[in-house]
Amino acid sequence: MADYYRTLGVPKNASDEEIKSAFRKLALKYHPDRNPGNKEAENKFKEINEAYEILSNPEKRKIYDAYGEDALKGAAGGPGGFSGGFGGFSQQGDFSDIFGDVFENFFGDQMGGRRSSSRRRGADLKYKAEISLEEAFNGAKIEIKYDKRSSCKTCGGSGAQSKSSVKKCPSCGGRGRVQYSQGFFSFTQTCPKCGGSGEIISSPCKDCGGLGIVKEKSSLNVKIPAGVEDGSVLRVSGAGDAGEKGSSPGDLYIEISVRHHPHFERDRQDLIYELPLDMADAALGCEAEVPVIDGGRIKIKVPEGVQFGKILRVSEKGMPYANSRKRGDLLVRVKVETPSHLTSEQKELLRKFSESLKQQKEKENSSFFKKIFD
């Protein structure tokens, strides 16, 4: 006695969707077209079909669960009580209804998986636009020029010289698919004569050769939003390649590249500026001028004794946030510079300064230990 649940590898309480999914996987694995000349695979394929025909039918499954396989024998039609064709599939397309495009992906048109006769959407295009940091700060309008496929203006994208030259395909009757038999089943495939369009053009357009699409150079004005970051991608809907004979066009994706700036580094919405200071200004403190991205310079106060690498933050002087009035900060990184060319007088002064520092340090250490001993 056959165990249909075991054949499909599902539990007895399996849902209809679980049964259908298990059947698809096994049928793809053991289908004769994937196992030519393999008798064992052919027999397994028959068992799978038989099991699915019973378990996919609520009434037959109920009878099978209650009384077993024998209770189903003698029902009207076909071997084992199955109605029409082999293993419960009618020869006109139940198999195709179950698999849809799945078999087409595995076997192509030879298997007859149903392929949509609708015309394909246009391809998406990519474009890389380079802008300056100032343009990223302020926002900008730029013109881009690129090659794309456009609908033929001569024929309006139909591919025909005139409407009268477009005829219904005689091979498929305008359906875009033709049917043929293979083994136990009848399959459908994309009509090879019309390519699935269902139409034949007797007099193609001379400008596009019947394709309905021509290559051309295109230009487009694009608005770059303020605060855009390097690597951001903007999508322009419908600016890609034209679709087949009137179908929807693709999109244009613009990747933004922000050029290196001579003064500023960028950390998201913050800007970083390196401020060079000599030793005296770093030690004594000073007032320094730094540039800002929106033009001009501002003065900042550098505290005395500032160390190399110290970050001085200037609020709201960085890049703007997208769709907001808020701005990042300007981070001023101190870079203390050591002089490399000193005069004799400067060297003597530095020696005296160094000696003074040593004496001060010794005095501080002496005072520290004296306090401990006291």
List keywords for this structure.
4-stranded mixed beta sheet, single chain, 4 domains, 374 residues, 3-stranded mixed beta sheet, Helix Hairpins, 9 helices, 26% strand, HSP40/DNAj peptide-binding domain, alpha+beta, elongated
Can you describe this structure?
This protein is an alpha+beta fold and 374 residues long. It has helices spanning 4-8, 16-30, 39-55, 58-67, 94-99, 102-107, 133-138, 279-284, 344-373; strands spanning 125-131, 140-151, 166-168, 177-182, 185-190, 199-201, 213-224, 233-236, 252-258, 264-267, 270-278, 286-291, 297-302, 311-314, 330-337. It has a four-stranded mixed β-sheet. A three-stranded mixed β-sheet has the order 1-9-8. A hairpin with a 2-residue loop joins β10 and β11.
CATH overall fold name of the largest domain: Helix Hairpins
Strand content: 25-35%
Question: Which overall shape is indicated by the principal axes computed on the Cα atoms?
Answer: elongated
N-to-C SSE string, H for helix and E for strand: HHHHHHEHEEEEEEEEEEHEEEEH
Lay out the secondary structure:
Layout: H1 4-8, H2 16-30, H3 39-55, H4 58-67, H5 94-99, H6 102-107, E1 125-131, H7 133-138, E2 140-151, E3 166-168, E4 177-182, E5 185-190, E6 199-201, E7 213-224, E8 233-236, E9 252-258, E10 264-267, E11 270-278, H8 279-284, E12 286-291, E13 297-302, E14 311-314, E15 330-337, H9 344-373
The gist of it:
By secondary structure, the chain is α+β, with helices and mostly antiparallel strands. The protein contains 9 helices and 15 strands. The strands form 6 sheets. A 4-stranded mixed sheet has the order 10-11-15-14. Strands 1-9-8 form a 3-stranded mixed sheet. Strands 2-7 form a two-stranded antiparallel sheet.
